[in-house]
Each structure stands twice: as C-alpha cells, then as structure tokens.
Write a structure and sequence with these properties.
5 helices; two-stranded antiparallel sheet; mainly alpha; about 220 residues; binds protoporphyrin IX containing FE
Length: about 220
C-alpha cells in the first residue's frame, strides 16, 4: 500500500469517530496560538514609538508570522489529503454553510497576512534581514530594482491587505470561538471534543471498561446442585 494510502487510512480511524486527526489538531492549535499572538503583538508593535525597540518588536512580529505561511501550506495540503470529520455541526443547514465560509476566510488570512507582511517588509528600504522563527534566513521579495514609486504603491497596497485581514479576523474569530462554545455547552454537540487532543475518559465505560470480578460461569447442565 502507498504511504499516502496508509496515512489516509490512519487518519480515517480518527475522522470516522467525528474527530480531527492528531495532525489536524496540532495544526489548528499551533496556528490559533500564533495568530492570536500576532494580533496582540502587531497592535503592540504599531503603538511602540519610533526608534528604540521598535525595529526589534517588528523583527519578532515577522519571525513569528512567517511560520504561519509555511504551516498554512502544510495545513492546506493535509486538509486536501484528509477531509475534516462529519460531526454534529454538519447537520445544521445555513449555520454549517457559515462555518465553512469562515474556514475559507481563515485560510485566506493564513496566506494573505504573512504574504502582505513580507511584501511590506520587502518594499521599503529593508529595515533588516528576515528570519523564519527568528533564526532561519528568509529572502526579501525581489522589489529592490523597481522604481521607488512602484515600491511605495506595493507598500500601500500590502498595508491595506494586512489591515483588512486583521479587521476581518477580529470579526470572525469571536464568532468562531462563540460557535464552538455554543455547540459544546449549549447543544452538547461533539464538535469541540473532536478538535481537542484525545484524553482517555476514565468515566466513560465505552473507552475504558472498568475491571469487574469475573462472573461465576458454569454451564447449567454441569452446575453443582
Ligand atoms: C501571520 C500572521 C500575522 C498577523 C495576525 C499580523 C497582524 C498584524 C497586526 C494586528 C498589525 C497592526 C495593525 C496594522 O497595522 O495592520 C500588523 C502590522 C504589521 N505587520 Fe503583521 N501580522 C502577521 C504577519 C506579519 C508578517 C509575516 C510580517 C512581515 C514579514 C508582518 C509585518 C507587519 C508590518 C510591517 C506591520 C506594520 C504595518 C503598518 O505600519 O501599517 N506581519 N500585523
Ligand atoms: C481559541 C479558541 C478556538 C476554539 C475553541 C476553536 C474551535 C474549533 C473547532 C471546535 C473546530 C471544528 C469545527 C468543525 O468541524 O465544524 C475548529 C475548526 C477550525 N478552526 Fe478553530 N477554534 C479556536 C480558534 C481558532 C483560531 C484563532 C483560528 C484561526 C485564526 C481557527 C481556525 C480554524 C479553522 C481554519 C478550522 C477548520 C478546520 C481545519 O481546516 O483544520 N480556530 N475550531
């Protein structure tokens, strides 16, 4: 059997239980953490006065943001290979459609934010080299031979895209998190459980049957008395 077939079979073992695969779960929570950090740090960066730490603050912002682009490529590939599970949220008509639309918006942001940030960084007289995760050298986009007016135009457009995606995320993330919590606490659906790492539930007899003393087993015909 091919490696891809074996991976798909392994992942189906999870998705057929209405759960995301451990790889899908890792992508989700690592990227959710990075994006939330970047939103906070990005606003902090724009408030820091020019000079002093400002360059370092933006270097951290770019170092933590570029991995989002690499992870987005991996996650999209994984999602194409391994479709998400069918869970209780998939039986809700228009709400399901909105949830799917939100997932597309998230993927657009996963690519659009680092790409526009990278374009901004590359269009101005480079304020310093770029590093993925702070230590892997990352190239500039090839804008340095372009006329200055074009570079200013790219800077302006990339800034608009970055801000538009930031504002979109600020609107959509609370809806996404609110919907996940509503499914879990209000509707008692399996949606959030399917996105959390699997922890064997000691209380759930289906997952971990308690040890009982064996029943006395004797055939009626051979039983004494
Ligand atoms: C991947 C997720 C990212 C998120 C969520 C994010 C978020 C933000 C936020 C909230 C701001 C402040 C608001 C604004 O001015 O738009 C900002 C500004 C900025 N970000 Fe990002 N960012 C990300 C990635 C990146 C990357 C990878 C780079 C560079 C390689 C970058 C470069 C910049 C720059 C240069 C600014 C200042 C823009 C300005 O002065 O108007 N960002 N970002
Ligand atoms: C912090 C609280 C969060 C919670 C409780 C949460 C919960 C969930 C749940 C339960 C699902 C499964 C939905 C379904 O199958 O219908 C999901 C999927 C998803 N979430 Fe979140 N999420 C959170 C944050 C985020 C953030 C910050 C982002 C991105 C900015 C995000 C992006 C996604 C995407 C793209 C999916 C689709 C699944 C995939 O393609 O891997 N989530 N989330």
């Amino acid at each position: 059997m091919s490696v891809v077939g074996a991976v798909q079979r392994w992942a189906r073992g999870h998705t057929e239980q209405s759960r995301y695969s451990p790889v899908g779960i890792a992508f989700h929570w690592i990227m959710a953490f990075l994006i939330l950090f970047q939103l906070g740090w990005g606003f902090y960066a724009s408030w820091v006065p020019a000079g002093g730490d400002k360059l370092w603050v933006y270097q951290v912002h770019s170092a933590a943001g570029l991995p989002v682009l690499v992870l987005a490529l991996g996650r999209l590939g994984w999602r194409i290979l391994i479709p998400g599970p069918i869970n209780d949220a998939d039986r809700q008509g228009w709400q399901t459609q909105i949830a799917y639309a939100m997932h597309y918006v998230f993927y657009a942001a996963f690519f659009g934010l680092p790409l526009s940030g990278w374009a901004m960084w590359s269009s101005i007289a480079a304020p310093g080299p770029l590093y993925l995760a702070g230590f892997i050298p990352w190239p500039q986009m090839p804008f340095d031979q372009m006329p200055l007016t074009l570079r200013w135009w790219i800077l302006d457009a990339a800034e608009d895209v970055h801000l538009l995606l930031v504002v979109t995320l600020l609107a959509v993330i609370p809806l996404h998190v609110g919907a996940a919590l509503k499914h879990h606490f209000w509707d008692r659906h399996d949606v959030l459980r399917g996105m959390l790492p699997e922890i064997p539930d000691m209380e759930d007899p289906r997952e971990d049957p308690p040890h009982r003393p064996p029943e006395p087993r004797s055939h009626p015909e051979t039983a004494p008395g």
